[in-house]
Amino acid sequence: MAVSAEFLPEFDLEMAAARRTLERIPEDKLTWKPHEKSMLLGRLAGHIAELPGMGVNIMKDDELDFAKRAAGEPARKPNVAESRKHVLELFDKNVAAVRAAIAGASDERWAGKWTLSAGERKFYEGSRMGAMRRMMMNHVIHHRAQLGVYLRLNDVAVPSVYGPSADEGR
C-alpha cells in the first residue's frame, strides 16, 4: 500500500475529532485562560486551526526556518480565533490543503528528510513522515486535548474522541 493511502485514514479521523472539539468553543470565552501561563482559549483554538497548514509546508518543502523571511515581509502573527465560524473556516481550509498534498505525494516524496528550525536552532530534523506525525498531527492532537480541558473547565460538553467522554457516547 502506498504511504499516502495508509496515512490518510488516520489523518481523516484525527482531523474530524479536532473539528468536533473546535465546534464546541464558547464564543463568549475566547479571552479566557485557566492560568496566567496558559494560552487564551481563542489563541489555542486558532493554533489548532493553523497547525494543519504546517503539513502543507512539510509536504511541499524540505525545511521551514522561522528565521528566514522575504525582505520586507512582516513577522508572522499567531492566529487568534475571532469566532467559532472564523476558526472552523481556517481549520477546514488548512485540512483540505494538507489532505490534497498528502494524497498527491509519492512514496519517494515521503522518503525525504525535513527540518524545522529558527536559524541555527533545530527543532526537528528527520523523516518527512516523522515531521508530519510529530510536528503537525500529534501537535494537533496535543492541543485538541488541551482544548478539551478548557471546555471541561467552562462546563462545555467534551466530544467523544477515542471512546465515550463523560458527556457523550455512554
Could you walk me through the main structural features you see in this protein, from its secondary elements to its overall organization?
With 170 residues, the chain is mainly alpha-helical. The chain has one domain: Up-down Bundle (Four Helix Bundle (Hemerythrin (Met), subunit A)), CATH 1.20.120. It is 53% helix and 9% strand. It has helices at 3-22, 41-60, 84-103, 107-110, 128-153; strands at residues 63-65, 113-118, 121-127. Strand 2 (113-118) and strand 3 (121-127) form a beta hairpin. Helix 1 packs parallel to helix 5 (128-153), helix 2 packs parallel to helix 3 and helix 2 packs antiparallel against helix 5. The protein is globular and about 45 Å long.
Question: Topology, please?
Answer:
Elements: H1 3-22, H2 41-60, E1 63-65, H3 84-103, H4 107-110, E2 113-118, E3 121-127, H5 128-153
Parallel strand pairs: 1-2
Antiparallel strand pairs: 2-3
The gist of it:
The protein is mainly α and 170 residues long. Helices cover 53% and strands 9% of the residues.
Number of strands: 3
Tell me what portion of residues adopts beta-strand conformation. Answer: 5-15%
Largest pleated sheet: 3 strands, mixed
- What value does the Rg take, in angstroms? 17 Å
SSE succession = HHEHHEEH
Q: What's the CATH C level?
A: Mainly Alpha
Strand order of the largest sheet: 1-2-3
How far apart the termini lie comes to: 36 Å
CATH fold-level name:
Four Helix Bundle (Hemerythrin (Met), subunit A)
Overall shape: it is: globular
How confident overall, as mean pLDDT? 94
Specify the helix fraction band: 40-55%
Q: What are the low-pLDDT stretches, counting only 5+ consecutive residues below 50?
A: none
Total number of distinct structural domains: 1
